[in-house]
Design goal:
The protein has 485 residues and is of the alpha/beta class. It has two domains: 234 residues, ATPase, nucleotide binding domain (Nucleotidyltransferase, domain 5, 2-Layer Sandwich), CATH 3.30.420.40; 211 residues, ATPase, nucleotide binding domain (Nucleotidyltransferase, domain 5, 2-Layer Sandwich). 37% of the residues lie in helices and 20% in strands. Strands 15-16-14-13-19-20-21 form a seven-stranded mixed beta sheet. A six-stranded mixed beta sheet has the order 3-2-1-5-12-11, sandwiched between helices. A two-stranded antiparallel ribbon has the order 4-7. Strand 15 and strand 16 form a beta hairpin. Helix 2 crosses helix 4, helix 11 crosses helix 12 and helix 12 packs across helix 13. Belongs to the FGGY kinase family. This is Gluconokinase. Pfam families: FGGY_C, FGGY_N. Its EC number is 2.7.1.12.
Length: 485
Amino acid sequence: MLILILEASTASAKAMLYKSGEGAVDLLLNNYSAEAGDTLTYDADKIMEETLRTGKRLLERNGIGRVDMVAACSIWSHSLVLLDKNKSPVSRLSTWADTSASVTTDKYRKDTELFTSLYKRTGCPIHVSYTIWKYIHEKENGGSGRAAFIASMPEYLFLKLTGEFAASISTASASGFLNLHTLRWDEEALRLAGVDGSMLPNLVESEYTAPLSGEAAAMLGLAEGTPVLVTGADGCMNQVAAGAFADQIMSLSVGTSAAMRISTEKPVLADYPSTWCYVGVENMWIAGSAIAGAGNSIDWMGKKILGFHRGISLQDLDRGAERSLMKGEAPIFLPFLAGERCPGWDDTKRAMLFEMRIDHDLYDLYYSALEGVLFNLKQCYEITLPIVGQPPKWISISGGIEKSPFWLRMAASIFGLPVHTDGLLHASLVGTAYMGLKAAGEIASVKDIKPTFNSRYEPDASKRAYYERRYARYLKYYAQHSAGI
């Protein structure tokens, strides 16, 4: 079985050819053009066009004019695009990184009863990343007048591929509109937003397929009617690829943002909104937490502050950061360049550097960024662990972090757990391929998918006390920053 996987991610279009029995055949990635947008907001049609064009180029590169299935993937429902009665965009697509709605979410979060009630029913804290809050902000500021339908990135991709306005229950559970317990649109959330359920996509299962439309078929160079698997969420597909629905494995993906996840057999929520819980696949749920500042913080530090463009390699940076670790006196970095998700869900929060000295160099700053991202993730881990009941056996890690062995060693030592990589820099695409095989009947259950191991990193016991001291200082500055001191 040959599957074309298309992913519309936060910053790029991706395409993979996957053949059952062989695995990934070829992969093509293209960053969205400047004309499409700037990561915060996009021209929705432009990024879908660029995603399909990436798929077409991959097919042409391999001389392929027929596939058995097209499988789609995108970000969780952490975005918003408003559609008219013909389901054409009447707004730009706002991604999770767009914090312009923070003035609205900050207002509603002050109602602690509402904050907790919505979280307990939807699994989603009040935060600017969720579709519901982006929509409420638009409505309260007069930006929703022409909207007949409410979409996010995944269902708009499926709409462009098939002409059907549908979302998997799993993907929709990260919109803030879905009741985590009934698996239908939440009545209180609908009332709060002032919308009817008919404005939202049809809810379908994760193995639902629809025929490829004539328009999309022409753009891809494939046969009209080819089955298209409903768009999955990248985080859920990462969990599938990691084999983490079958065992006590925590998956951690570190890309533009970062998220850690662990599978559960029922919805699992904290007493107060701090973690999130979404629907997985095969009657499983995913509990976890996410941070807004990860790879974007590293890029920002390298390009905008340190001025790196050419002439210095990642290996040079890693070696310099390791020397900074040995000195042990780097600044402390709070990585909230795109606001805060877990643990505080404060989208108005900003990044900060502490303990700067005149003798700090560029490698100290780079090290601080790597460490700050991991410390924010450690905060998430410490909150997530009590609600799932037991620690994971190991962490399966994927994403851009895999390019830096030094960062991976830091992660193992800071979490105090073995860190495994599977070599899948684009695990969400592989997970989507597995779901395609499951929908076609070639895989009985995602629980049968076994983890693959490429590299293993053990905690360095000699660094434990050092990281504990640094983490205590990070938490001190975090508390002061949160309190406005």
